[in-house]
Design goal:
Chain B: Pathway: Cell wall biogenesis; lipoteichoic acid biosynthesis. The complex is a heterodimer of chains A (405) and B (430). With 405 residues, chain A is mainly α. Chain A is built from 16 helices and no strands. Classes of the chains: A mainly alpha (405), B mainly alpha (430).
Chain lengths: 405, 430
């Protein structure tokens, strides 16, 4: 049995696209072959987990899916009758529990036992189910449809790393076949995304990630071996990693979207020229968008509303500053329980809060601070370099550089 | 616009792209031509790309104008000075020209795979194989494996095997290559190698797939190896040949080696080339004192890797000369490298060679104390190269001898790998 990691090499695309041909023809003629779609999805998920150390992950995925299925089902059933806050918080906590335990394992606690729970894609599946629970609390999702729930949770193109969709949006697409005009547009976008993805992932990401980044790491490490606390080489390490991360993840996202489109599902886009952002807030509207919007809606906004409603803090600005830190720190923790992910979250929280303060300051002193294309250009450059600095922290190389020489 | 037209606009370019790809990869004619100049440059490029690929090797060893002879080795190959084999061959118009395969990190396992891409060459040409005792560390020195590995090597190896039953050597190498990261991550190659390691024949269906793979990978190799351009020949070999006298005279060249050596090793007492000393030794000098006193080259998996190379030479009846390199004695004294141990490992290597009929051996291992014999810590230079030339020139300029090798698979065994050599137990090992 072959083992096929998602989008890992050109063969994967050949197999997957061939398997999707019948589905695509059906969609073109206005029919959605749901059973076939489910079978193809399950087959390709199976092929991720069918060999070696992946088998254990496959088992973990099954257990995880059952757990989330029961939780969401239970909460939706409950929500029809009542709406107590503690039940909502309990359901959310239980939904987050698996990834929390896996992150503990990542940090070295009960590693042998807890890491058994982990599998490729767990962090993204968590967003899907937690999102459903929150939407249910807010009254957006009504009935529990077991099959639709599983199609959503285990949507194969975006299983391993997103983009993170929302249940209500997904269910609307997945219930029907798109209009023919619309579907042809989607196919056009799919082809464009696939080929752009090939350039990003197999050429640029390879070049930055496998050739340039390791080279600069090596140069920096040789300074480390000479006992230096800092090295000029850390600068190109940061930039090469930043370029690698963008092309790798954006390339992957393009693939995931292309396959979604072919399956007639318009998953949300993930990247929109992030390195051209004029400030850090705009950066997060362009970088890993499905994640940052998820956090905006389900962490930031809820935090702000809760604090204002309960009047724990009166000053709106203080609340939003606090919310930025909470938001980005949670994101940092979600990445993993290491000092560098958390510091990364903290840096972005601080930058978002600082950015807001700057905008308030500008508004107060209207007319006295110049605003033209030069200052905008400066802002883009500044934002880019700041982001690269945070990626130097994020990539974890500093941990090796300082603590594992 | 009609829907049909829209679909054409979307998928037309895709079809065109695939047609172009098929054209490039599958058409039977060659897309590559290597000029004499670029082959000369390749012969001293020391690029890992050469070890990985087959296009340049095929072109060089089939070249009708220049008789390129493969020199398998590692870091020592790139120590170019006036008496380096490539320089002497160039300057004295020898009827051979060394073609260097290897750089730091290419040990016998690397060369076993490297050779799979050039079996025909090994059948028709002589070869030189430079053995560094430094490879023979306990777990082998194959940290550089990934740098030199390419799937094309495995495909060639499998195609060479055909439907024959894998030999003990094939099984051994397959089991070792399976452990390497670059192979482990590829389900296709690890499945094939598992099969070979288990001693199972390849099926004809597998061989057809392999032939298709070969077509694609070798085309890829031919298209992309040429991107690595070096100018060592122009900038280093031809420059190093300038001071050489017009006619070859061993004594005149020895004097030249002495003078060049002296001039270039003036900043230290170890007779290490100045540039090497400042960049590689000076900063760590203190830490290196006595640092090698526990080094042991006598017990190593590398002996079995070495055996796999010997087996391959024997299979192809290659007339091959082995070179065993010395270490810089002045430096070894400083680092505490045990000379007795070194000589024991050399004896073990030589026993492995001679008992199987490999009798062309240039053993330089005792000469590392001679003045300007070494270019740096473990690499020969100047007078060392000249001493080697006394072996190489007669061998490579003379006629090809019929070989008579008797391979003994016991040299693959753990018993041999772990044998602590002494004069008695070597002769007893059968």
């Amino acid at each position: 049995m072959p083992n096929l990691q998602p989008y890992a090499d050109p063969n994967y695309f050949i197999y997957l696209l061939l398997a999707l041909v019948p589905l695509s023809i059906g969609l073109y003629f206005g029919k959605r072959f749901v059973t076939y779609e489910i079978l193809v999805s399950l087959a390709f998920i199976f092929l991720i987990f069918d060999e070696g150390h992946y088998v254990n992950q496959g088992v973990a995925l099954i257990i995880y899916s059952i757990w989330q299925f029961l939780l969401v089902w239970g909460y939706i059933s409950y929500r029809k009758k009542a709406n107590a806050s503690w039940v909502f918080y309990l359901a959310t906590a239980l939904s987050i529990l698996p990834i929390f335990l896996v992150r503990l394992a990542g940090a070295g606690l009960f590693h042998a036992q807890l890491s058994m729970l982990g599998f490729l894609g767990i962090s993204y599946l968590t967003f899907r189910s937690v999102g459903m629970i929150i939407e249910t609390r807010d009254g957006a999702a009504h009935d529990f449809h077991p099959i639709m729930f599983l199609r959503f949770m285990l949507f194969m193109p975006t299983l391993s790393s997103g983009p993170i969709d929302r249940y209500t949006r997904f269910a609307k697409d997945a219930a029907v076949a798109p209009e023919r005009e619309k579907y042809i547009d989607l196919l056009g976008k799919a082809v464009k995304n696939l080929f752009l993805g090939f350039v990003y992932k197999f050429i640029l990401s390879y070049y930055f990630g496998q050739i340039i980044y390791p080279y600069f790491q090596g140069m920096a490490m040789s300074d480390a071996h000479h006992g230096m606390v800092l090295s000029w080489w850390l600068i190109p390490v940061a930039y090469s990693y930043g370029m690698y991360l963008f092309f790798d993840f954006a390339g992957y996202s393009l693939f995931a979207l292309a396959i979604s489109y072919i399956m007639g599902i318009e998953s949300p886009i993930n990247f929109n020229k992030p390195y051209g952002a004029k400030n850090i807030k705009e950066f997060w509207n362009r970088w890993h968008m499905s994640l940052s919007f998820w956090f905006r809606d389900f962490v930031f906004m809820r935090f702000v509303f809760l604090f204002l409603k309960k009047k724990w803090i009166k000053n709106r600005n203080t609340v939003s500053t606090l919310a930025y830190f909470v938001n980005m720190l949670v994101m940092g923790f979600w990445h993993g329980l290491t000092w560098y992910y958390i510091l990364y979250g903290f840096m972005h929280g601080a930058a978002l809060a600082g950015n807001d303060a700057w905008i308030r300051f500008k508004r107060k002193h209207k007319g006295r601070i110049p605003h033209n294309k030069w200052t905008e250009g400066f802002a883009v450059v500044l934002t880019f370099h700041f982001v690269m600095l945070t990626f130097l922290v994020f990539c974890g190389f500093l941990d090796t550089f300082w603590f594992h020489r | 616009m009609s829907n049909k037209k829209k679909l054409w606009q979307i998928f037309g370019p895709v079809l065109a792209a695939f047609a172009l790809l098929a054209f490039v990869f599958l058409l039977p004619f060659s897309l590559t031509h290597f000029s004499q100049k670029s082959l000369k440059e390749s012969s001293v490029s020391f690029s890992s790309q050469l070890v990985k690929g087959e296009a340049v090797k095929n072109a060089a060893f089939a070249d009708k104008k220049v008789n390129y002879v493969p020199f398998f080795g590692s870091s020592e190959l790139s120590r170019i000075d006036s008496l380096h084999p490539s320089v002497l061959a160039e300057n004295y118009h020898r009827d051979y020209q060394p073609f260097m395969l290897g750089k730091a990190g290419s040990d016998s396992l690397v060369h076993f795979l490297n050779m799979q891409e050039m079996q025909k060459t090994l059948k028709t040409k002589k070869a030189v194989y430079v053995v560094s005792p430094q490879w023979f560390t306990k777990t082998g020195s194959d940290g550089g494996f990934d740098l030199f590995y390419s799937p094309l090597q495995v495909v060639d190896w499998m195609l060479n095997l055909g439907q024959n039953k894998p030999t003990k050597t094939d099984q051994f190498v397959a089991s070792k290559v399976l452990d390497k990261g670059s192979v482990k991550n590829s389900p296709y190659y690890s499945r094939l190698l598992k099969q070979v390691a288990a001693g199972d024949k390849l099926t004809s269906a597998e061989l057809s797939t392999l032939r298709l793979k070969h077509r694609i990978l070798s085309r890829q190799d031919a298209l992309f190896t040429r991107f690595e351009k070096t100018s060592n020949y122009k900038n280093r070999v031809l420059k190093a040949a300038k001071p050489l006298p017009e006619h070859y005279s061993e004594s005149a060249l020895d004097r030249l080696g002495y003078d060049e050596g002296k001039k270039n090793t003036s900043n230290n007492d170890f007779h290490i080339k100045n540039s090497f000393y400042t960049t590689r030794v000076m900063a760590e000098k203190k830490a290196l004192k006595g640092a090698q006193k526990d080094y042991d080259y006598t017990q190593s998996v590398e002996y079995a890797y070495f055996q796999s190379v010997l087996d391959n030479f024997a299979k192809n009846h290659t007339d091959v000369m082995f070179v065993i390199t010395p270490v810089n004695q002045r430096w070894a004294k400083y680092t505490g490298l045990n000379n007795t141990m070194y000589q024991e490992s050399v004896a073990k290597i030589k026993y492995q060679l001679q008992s199987q009929g490999f009798n062309n051996i240039a053993d330089l291992s005792r000469d590392g104390g001679e003045d300007y014999f070494m270019q740096d810590t473990i690499h020969v230079g100047w007078r060392g190269w000249l001493a080697l030339d006394q072996y190489l020139n007669p061998f490579l300029s003379g006629p090809t001898e019929k070989t008579n090798y008797q391979i003994n698979n016991r040299f693959l065994s753990k018993d041999w790998q772990n044998l602590k050599p002494s004069t008695d137990n070597l002769a007893d090992f059968k």
